[in-house]
Amino acid sequence: MGTRLFIGNLAYAVTEQELREAFTGEGIELRSVRVALDRETGRPRGFAFVETMTDDGAKASIEKLSGRVLQGRSIIVEEAQAKPAGPRPGGDEIVVTRECASCGSVACARGGIACRHHMRNTQRA
Question: How confident is the model over 52-101, as pLDDT tens digits?
Fold first, then answer.
């Protein structure tokens, strides 16, 4: 078992310090605590990742804290899963654009608006 844990179903108001106190209150030593934030708004996303110092600490965390109520919500504590290998959806795909043969205006084929002239497909990486 790894020492990295996923903490889910968190109230948006839970801070890293409150999460750290919940773990250390049970005698579990932590290496790090990180509450996930939305990239655009900077607001919490309702989950976090915690890294314990030992495998035994990770097991104890799951046993003692899974289902515990923290700020009115029953939290989920489980071993974190590794990110899947390979490209993420929407990241490395080929973008197909349409180029007007008449005026040369270009629009993305995913929903951009193109001119009314005849269109020909072109591909960009």
Answer: 999 999 999 999 999 999 999 999 999 998 877 766 665 555 455 555 55
Together in a domain, 101 and 73: no
Nearest-angstrom CA–CA distance, 33 and 46: 14
Give domain status of residue 86, yes or no: no
Domain tally for the chain?
2
Total residues found in the chain within this entry: 125
Task: Give the single-character DSSP code of 54.
Answer: S
Give helix 55-65 / helix 16-24 axis angle, nearest 10°. Answer: 100
pLDDT in tens, 32-50: 999 999 999 999 999 999 9
Range of the domain at 105: 95-124
Angle at 44 between CA 82 and CA 65, to 5 degrees: 65
How far is 40 from 102, CA to CA, in rounded Å?
A: 39
As a whole number of angstroms, the distance between CA 6 and CA 34 comes to 10
In the block, tokens 């990180």 appear at: 34
In whole angstroms, what is the distance from residue 97 CA to residue 103 CA? 15
Report the predicted TM-score, pTM, of the whole model to 2 decimal places: 0.67
